[in-house]
Amino acid sequence: MTTKTRELVKSGSNSASLVTQTPLLDAGDVETKRQEILDYFHDTFTLYESLFECLANDESFYARANPLRHPLIFYYGHTAVFFINKLNVANLIDQRIDPHIESTLAVGVDEMSWDDLNEQNYDWPTPARVKAYRDQTRAVVDNFIRECDFSLPIEWNSPMWIILMGIEHERIHLETTAVLIRELPLERVVSHPVWSNICRESGVPPENELIAVEGGQVEMGKSKSNSLYGWDLEYGYASETVKDFRASKFLVSNQEFLQFVESGGYQNSDFWTTEGWSWAEFRRAEHPVFWVKEGENFKYRSMLEVIDMPWDWPAEINYLEAKAFCNWKSEATGKNIRMPTEAEWYKLRERVDTDQPYWGSAPGNLNLEHEMSPCPVNRHEFDSGFFDVIGNVWQWTETPIDGYDGFEVHPTYDDFSTPTFDGNHNLFKGGCWISTGNYAIKDARYAFRRHFFQHSGLRYVEAEPLPELEVSVYETDQMVSNYIEFHYGKENLNLPNFPVACIKEVSKRLEGQSTQRALDIGCATARSSFELAKIFDHVDAVDLSVRLIEPPANLQRAGRQRYVCVEEGELTLFNEIQLDDYEGYKEVKDKIAFMQGDACNLVEKFNDYDLVFAGNLIDRLYDPVMFLESIKSRIRPGGLLVLVSPYTWSEEHTPRDKWLGGFKAATGESFTAIEGIEKVLGPEFKMVGDPVDLPFALRETKRKFQYGVSELTAWQKEA
């Protein structure tokens, strides 16, 4: 971190210098850019750590602020773990600092149905251990930035892109962690020289009114040649014709939202969606979560204290509350009131002709350039006559998040966006007081489940009703679709279904074996997991990619999964698989637990198995020896390890010095994968039965397939 910024954080200054601007990807020379990114990294790392100084003691790190999220100890280390894990995944470093922390603090609450928040499964490290880990990570990343070879412009595949990914990821958590700290009991937090500097201004709330906005064509999305770092879902193209509408001059203030509360809005199901009313009943909600009821009066919970209610500040609510308010407002006014769409918000923003990092100072309460909280809704006026077009609090929209045309997943963070393309995550726009970095740019696209709290509020519009949303989510990522088809589609080239054939061979080796617990590691879209569940009492299905385990989890939960296959060129075929189509799957589906995990660095809870099945996995690992060494202790005495692989060794996946076989040994003799496996597993494991060849054909298009032959071997642990 720059000396100046360190001093500002230490002294508690509210200066805009607390936050450096997002680096441009194509400006300057390499060495100047290197120093700029180095400063940006240290600024971010230190600013994030300062948030945790708000916790009263070590015990506060383990308090659960929100039952749907991990305790704060997870988030304290998670952003540092992200740097190390992503640099390893991208094959930019071959270094681990603390494997236990790097597995335990790697996967957050992704809001998927398989998330396991049973605290008995987590062995949380101490704050001191996490701080030491963060210090080591800082040194590793600092050294990488100083020494990595890169050129300008910084593009998608640049090593410096991964550094910017880690920095922007930490700035996301700067904001989300501030919300979690705000949800802690007051006795769990203390004042802070920076974060206690909230706005102290409050006055008479302004009367809201609707202002006309001219419609027109809206172009959304950006190209890969854009000068600012972006997440994968920001790239691509979308065009939409927006009709004329009217929008509220101000964000909805606490005073305006009070009218909804006092009219019995939280008690009247007519104003709520089905999802919203279920949430309201579950939470027994009677008012916004950050309002504190004291007798007949309300006070306001900021991040670190409770203050008199600032009625002219924006109401901070989730999407479900915002939707209920709009429905109530429609009935009260006789007008069609709703939230804006993403395209309508862009029409509002058209007259804001600047963006972070091009401005000298933020035009609104954004980028930590003002107090550490929201402020009155009538403080920041824009040329259009609207207030808080950007900044203060996020503005919920009616638009479920989805990819633009041309959307492409970034391979290093393949589960950032696609898990939210389910119709259940809505976009919010405009940023808030603590939005920095990518969060503060025009093209930022972030979405949360509708019941989640952020620093988010509402601007409403009077506009035509939107068509009823029909969510028919098709998996369009071609790699994922190909695996769904490979596992669940019709047989190709007259070959038997590969996962089914594998488990059929496994079953032949289970005579007299215990069949309580199985691990399907590298399960991909998990046809093998369903087959194993016919045999075993419980199956853990684990894959590194959330994108791959999402389809079978949908199949388990909803009974169906849609996907798109390429037929020829731009011609596609829309397919649907249903659980009922597969004999016995409906009866055994609840035996399977789908989870994300790194085969080479599994969390300790994955243990005590009668069978570990690794299908077409070991030649795709960054360290297959590490996998084999670690998996041995996870298998019960007498249990089986079944390996299936075509042994397609490639430096794209596995560094040359990590190959198990496929090379000439020092003696000059050929050294095969089987010999390598036996060398690592022996003498504790012995091969049982003969190796079996299993052919497979992975469909790419209607007339193109990847043909291969895998070898299945089974290894039994000594009893």
Explain this structure to me?
This protein is α/β, with parallel strands linked by helices and 719 residues long. It has three domains: 3-188, dinb family like domain (Four Helix Bundle (Hemerythrin (Met), subunit A)), CATH 1.20.120; 210-471, paralog of FGE (formylglycine-generating enzyme), CATH 3.90.1580.10; 491-717, 3-Layer(aba) Sandwich (Rossmann fold). The protein contains 17 helices and 25 strands. The strands form seven sheets. A seven-stranded mixed sheet has the order 19-16-15-20-21-25-24, covered by helices on one side. The chain has a four-stranded antiparallel sheet with strand order 1-4-13-8. A hairpin with a 4-residue loop joins strand 6 and strand 7.
β-strand number: 25
How many structural domains can be distinguished in the coordinates? Answer: 3
Specify the structural class.
alpha/beta
> How many DSSP H or I helices?
17
- Report the sheet with the most strands, covering strand number, pairing sense and barrel closure: 7 strands, mixed
Instruction: State the end-to-end distance.
Output: 55 Å
CATH class term of the largest domain: Alpha Beta
Q: Radius of gyration, Cα only, in angstroms?
A: 27 Å
The average pLDDT value, as a whole number, equals 92
Instruction: Examine the coordinates and then state which fold CATH places here, giving the name of the CATH topology of the largest domain.
Output: paralog of FGE (formylglycine-generating enzyme)
The amount of helix comes to 25-40%
* Uncertain residue segments: 1-6, 10-17, 110-117
- The CATH architecture of the largest domain can be given as Alpha-Beta Complex
